[in-house]
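Journal club side-thread
Mid-discussion, someone asked how the predicted structure for our own chain would compare to the paper's figures. Pasting it here so we can look after the session.
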Amino acid sequence: MIPSLKRLAGYSIIFGLVLITALLFTSPAVAQEVAEEELLEQGAQIYAENCAVCHGEDGQGRVGATLAKNWPSIRPDLRVRDVIDRGIPGTFMPAWGLAHGGPLTEQEIDATTFYILSWQDGGPIYIFPTATPGSRLALTPPPGISGDPNRGAFLYASNCAVCHGLEGEGRVGATLAKDWPSFRPDLRVKSVIETGIEGSAMPGWSQEHGGPLTDQDINDITAYILTWEGAESIEGTQEPAVGPLTGWPVWVIVIGVFVIIVIAIIYYSRQNPSED
């Protein structure tokens, strides 16, 4: 009986060592795959919240450039990352990095870059819901202003909030919740939305200038922006962030070691019964 236990213990120790060795070699690959999947999903979330409004939720372009394409460069990751971080002066692409006045951290820019470049290899396109205005009291258009500010609130949240803030407080774009010292502020605001501002990060949003918005859309957004003085701002909602995956390879190693220890204890207790 004892030789049988001895062989069992020996086989168990050998098996455990083989298991641990295999896991030590495979765990880094598995961990890398898990980390890349998490990075991909994080980048997709950030892209949906910050980039899709201009570049399209599938990267096919909207008022911004097409991103779902091949990038002819030795290091396309450096090129894409630098553009996100620093922007392109004199164009519609603002700087998104914290160091350059934007809202994104270095890690968030890395994740967004990873997601965009995944499209080169046919990577998945994640569609996340974007911020929308919550319920609020009906808005009355400012005197002499055409357009529906209530409809404009939803259009603003879908097209403008990513740059100008959900409450017009400014983000990578100008602050809009302010006084507009002009005889006809509606004409000024409407004109900027329609045609953009040449040499700045503000593109033209009207269909006439290559954008997605109709004249009625622009009238409604203008009416909404001009209701901010003395009015409460809308509240937006955000989807919760995806949590990290558990490190199951570590638990496999722990369980394997535990089994080896239990078998070894049983073997040595049978070898030395007088010590019990």
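Post-session note: Confidence is low (pLDDT under 50) at residues 232-247.
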